[in-house]
Amino acid sequence: MLTIFSLVAVAGLVLPLLATTSQTRTQALLLSRVATLDRLAALAREMRDAGDLATVQAEASRMTEVYGEDLLLVGPSGQPVLSTGSLDLNDPGVRETLASASRNLARTTLDPVRPWSEPQHLLARPVGTPHDLAGAVVLRVDAGRAISAVRRDWALIVTGAIAVELLLLELAILLTRWVVRPVRRLEEAVVGLAETPTKGPAVMLSGPPELRNLTRSFADMAATVTRSLEMQRRMVADSSHQLRNPLAAVRLRLDALASELRDPSSPRFAGIQQDLDRLEALLNDLLRLAEAESWSPDAIAGQSVVSDVLPGEVGAWRLLAAENGVDLAAELAVVPPVAVSETDLRQIVGALVDNAIKYAGEGARVIVRIEQSGADAVRLSVVDDGPGLPAEQRELASQRFWRADQHQSSQGSGLGLAIVDQLVNTAGGTLTIEAATPHGLAVHIDLRTAT
């Protein structure tokens, strides 16, 4: 917009200046030639009355020598009386010009001289008075010098206009950068807040006052959001820590009570122990999720060699898979190290395999697959051929505490995939849940390779 405005402003100044320069050169040329015509017409009338045209001839010849322009003098009958140069009655436009002069209509105007104008023009002045016309004087004006002067003037003006426009463009670029730079910083801060909400974005106040006020308001809002999220995480973490102690005391007392019961293996007693196990698992998952959400990519920077982690991790789950009637297999290609710590990678694989064994059902087959999906990307997939999930449930599967209707009675806290999703996102990866072919569920984890 600033560029268009500067172009319009410069054009509004340059175009009138070009026209004025052209008019000035044209007027200067016309005034000198009209004065010459008037003098020659006056001399021709005097010499005609005296019967001697020698003075007119000398004056015309001298003018031709000085300006290089031809002149033609005709008498009352329209026949040439004297001529300098090559101008005669057969030249283009001469007869029309003489016809106007014979009617006492002088032709003493020129079109504005432009760089592309024709160099030759005809001017005419009648000799005598309207009641006693004694002929006419025709002058072929050479506007070449005026055209050259106009070209030189226009070139200087256009060069100056280009220089001014370049200066205005530079100023526009600087002004645009001054305005846009804080907007870009604000955009980066918004993206940073979305990626790492626990770390308040650092923004610099710059630019126009309106943008400074907007940046200041955003910084205040980001600080409030960060503080609120931090308080929520602290509450979850503190609650988990605080609940662990009384829960541990309850378990100790329950274990001590087992020796006093008549039947320690009774279903009620076993149910209480299972409830305690679930509460402990839930608190552990809540604490782990709170920790994962509070980490930043820099805080968890690390790498792990997949070939050193996955074989042992898959082997550790084979016994549980066999107990549940699930065939657990691995297809492990050689891939570069991934940009996630070994501990997090083990937890990611463990959570995915645990879910697959738990929900695929007896007789299902679960495959843990690792492959390189790009120049700097590795894909970890856990695929089963169980019943799978409908599309609307797959979209909800990574939400906290979510469970499918058909799995409400199964064990677990409903936080496994939520923790995996948080760990993967923090490491710069992505989690994708899709249907397997011909049936079942496929969970894909795309991770960056370590640099």
TrEMBL record:
<protein>
    <recommendedName>
        <fullName>Signal transduction histidine-protein kinase/phosphatase MprB</fullName>
        <ecNumber>2.7.13.3</ecNumber>
    </recommendedName>
</protein>
<dbReference type="InterPro" id="IPR050980">
    <property type="entry name" value="2C_sensor_his_kinase"/>
</dbReference>
<keyword id="KW-0378">Hydrolase</keyword>
<keyword id="KW-0418">Kinase</keyword>
<keyword id="KW-1133">Transmembrane helix</keyword>
<keyword id="KW-0902">Two-component regulatory system</keyword>
<dbReference type="Pfam" id="PF02518">
    <property type="entry name" value="HATPase_c"/>
</dbReference>
<keyword id="KW-0843">Virulence</keyword>
<dbReference type="InterPro" id="IPR036097">
    <property type="entry name" value="HisK_dim/P_sf"/>
</dbReference>
<dbReference type="InterPro" id="IPR003594">
    <property type="entry name" value="HATPase_dom"/>
</dbReference>
<keyword id="KW-1003">Cell membrane</keyword>
<keyword id="KW-0597">Phosphoprotein</keyword>
<keyword id="KW-0067">ATP-binding</keyword>
<keyword id="KW-0547">Nucleotide-binding</keyword>
<dbReference type="GO" id="GO:0016301">
    <property type="term" value="F:kinase activity"/>
</dbReference>
<dbReference type="Pfam" id="PF00512">
    <property type="entry name" value="HisKA"/>
</dbReference>
<keyword id="KW-0472">Membrane</keyword>
<keyword id="KW-0464">Manganese</keyword>
<dbReference type="InterPro" id="IPR003660">
    <property type="entry name" value="HAMP_dom"/>
</dbReference>
<keyword id="KW-0812">Transmembrane</keyword>
<keyword id="KW-0808">Transferase</keyword>
<dbReference type="InterPro" id="IPR005467">
    <property type="entry name" value="His_kinase_dom"/>
</dbReference>
<feature type="domain" description="Histidine kinase">
    <location>
        <begin position="238"/>
        <end position="451"/>
    </location>
</feature>
<dbReference type="InterPro" id="IPR003661">
    <property type="entry name" value="HisK_dim/P_dom"/>
</dbReference>
<keyword id="KW-0346">Stress response</keyword>
<dbReference type="InterPro" id="IPR004358">
    <property type="entry name" value="Sig_transdc_His_kin-like_C"/>
</dbReference>
<keyword id="KW-0460">Magnesium</keyword>
<feature type="domain" description="HAMP">
    <location>
        <begin position="177"/>
        <end position="230"/>
    </location>
</feature>
<dbReference type="InterPro" id="IPR036890">
    <property type="entry name" value="HATPase_C_sf"/>
</dbReference>
<feature type="transmembrane region" description="Helical">
    <location>
        <begin position="154"/>
        <end position="175"/>
    </location>
</feature>
<keyword id="KW-0904">Protein phosphatase</keyword>
